[in-house]
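Entry for the shared binder. Reason: the reviewer on the internal report wants the predicted structure included alongside the sequence.
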Amino acid sequence: MGLLSPSNAISIYRGASRTLALTVFNSSTKAPIKLVDVKLIFSVKRAPDDRPALVQKTTDYLSQFEIIKPSAGTAKIYLEAADTQMLDAGTYYYDVWVFFLLTGKRFIVIKPTVLEILPSITFAPLL
């Protein structure tokens, strides 16, 4: 299972918005996983063992994390300015999990991976 980007590392300027495209697939066969009766969760932390997450997105809210084409295993994660504006520039970590609601099974889609918050000069008010 994994993201479209080979390395999965993400860089974003503090206070910027970004849409991340995700394809969930079987790591052995490379076939897409059908995203039906599932919940996807994207979490960001300063360090993998920190609690709680600084940013968390879930498919419970389409404005945060949306399944685009269930049969193709595709989804989009929406990072908004408010998600990154208050974070200090530096290295953070994120992961993505899929929870199968009918079976209770859960799998990590993207293991803890670097998310770099880049410094920005302009501190724009949130709209």
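Summary line for the report: Confidence is low (pLDDT under 50) at residues 1-6.
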